[in-house]
Automatic annotation (TrEMBL):
This is Uncharacterized protein. It comes from the Archaea. It comes from Methanoculleus thermophilus.
Amino acid sequence: MTTIGLILCRIGLHRWGRKRGYDEYSSNVIEWEQRCERCGKKKRWVEVKRDRRR
Ligand SMILES: [Zn+2]
């Protein structure tokens, strides 16, 4: 782990790794989670699925 990397994390410039999605069939949103490879911080957000009604 480099010092410069930690500084970047401190100011909010994380190095986000692969995002993982939790797609529950019954819900109409996908819950995404991404983790910083340097400090391990997680961020989560939800995305509304596309309307499948036809
Ligand atoms: Zn970070």
